[in-house]
Amino acid sequence: MKYGVAIFPSKKVQDEANSYRKRYDTHYALVPPHITLKYPFESNDEEIEKTIIPALDEIAKNTKPIDIAVKKVGSFKPVENVIYLKVEPNNDLQNLSDEMHKGALEGEREHAFVPHITIAQNLSDDEFSDVYESLRMSKFDLSDRIDRFQLLYQLDNDSWSVYETFRLKGE
Amino acid sequence: MKYGVAIFPSKKVQDEANSYRKRYDTHYALVPPHITLKYPFESNDEEIEKTIIPALDEIAKNTKPIDIAVKKVGSFKPVENVIYLKVEPNNDLQNLSDEMHKGALEGEREHAFVPHITIAQNLSDDEFSDVYESLRMSKFDLSDRIDRFQLLYQLDNDSWSVYETFRLKGE
């Protein structure tokens, strides 16, 4: 069974992201707009309860709420035809994701952590160029206070269901 | 902003429900398969944090995990062309939903509580008859232990995002 860890930002930010995802993101119906902290990994009920959740609880206990800002879009081109709302560089968010790849949660990371909210993916090259050109000069002015993250698992239809919520309780 | 309270059953039950929802449920992409405990209600950040969440915490603290079973489908015809996986009558589940309509959570209930997982809705009368006839004689043999419920809010696109998870912690 596949699990992942993500942040769902506020309704305001999710609604803004969905206004693009609806047209451009093939995963629009599979999961709400999110910032991925830990990419999908294989696990099972027992490991989740005994190891993963206690480790995530500990991280949440020691992490303060994190302020984030979005000012523009970014893209993973040429690796992937993905366009995202770029979360401005943020040490606290970097640390939070780093903690989720240490100790009991250790796992190799395929990429450096680039905090983002995907709004377009699986576009053809032509679509990508059109959409990216029209969005890259846009200014966004979104800010949000992140005070929780969630552990999700994937259903057989590839959609994601939330298993547990972790509140950031650091002082 | 609209909020609601629901149970997401195990992956096994969700996958089974989705195998029907995919074809017959217009809300398939808006929310994973669920048992509604408290129907959508209007609230706001402040009330949610100060009143609703503490009340739900208290309920979760005093409620033991609940075993449920599904053996057949049911329908809300003639009121609505809805077909659902019928959760066998269950006092603990009834009490849990009752608690969510008392005290700080008080609110009028439009219907008696019928625990169910919707698998088909908004069908035409002909579709409804076809699907219901083919499903009503089917035997299901699903069982599950419910150990959590979740508070959700609705986005502008009518999909639902999980805000908080409550573990049933009663002894």
Mind explaining what this structure looks like?
2 copies of one chain form a homodimer. Chain A is α+β, with helices and mostly antiparallel strands. Chain A has 4 helices and 8 strands; from the N terminus they run βαβαββαβαβββ. Chain A has helices at 11-24, 45-61, 91-99, 125-136; strands at 2-7, 35-42, 66-75, 83-87, 116-120, 142-146, 148-154, 160-167. Chain A has a 4-stranded antiparallel sheet with strand order 2-1-7-8. A 4-stranded antiparallel sheet of chain A has the order 5-4-3-6. The first copy, chain A, is globular and about 50 Å long. The model of chain A has no long low-confidence stretch (mean pLDDT 95). Chains A, B: The active site is at 34 (proton donor), 116 (proton acceptor). Chains A, B: Its EC number is 3.1.-.-.
List the SSEs and their pairings.
2 copies of one chain form a homodimer.
Chain A: E1 2-7, H1 11-24, E2 35-42, H2 45-61, E3 66-75, E4 83-87, H3 91-99, E5 116-120, H4 125-136, E6 142-146, E7 148-154, E8 160-167
Antiparallel strand pairs in A: 1-2, 1-7, 3-4, 3-6, 4-5, 7-8
Motif (HXTX 1) (chains A, B): 34-37
EC number (chains A, B): 3.1.-.-
Protein name (chains A, B): Putative phosphoesterase SAMN05421687_105182
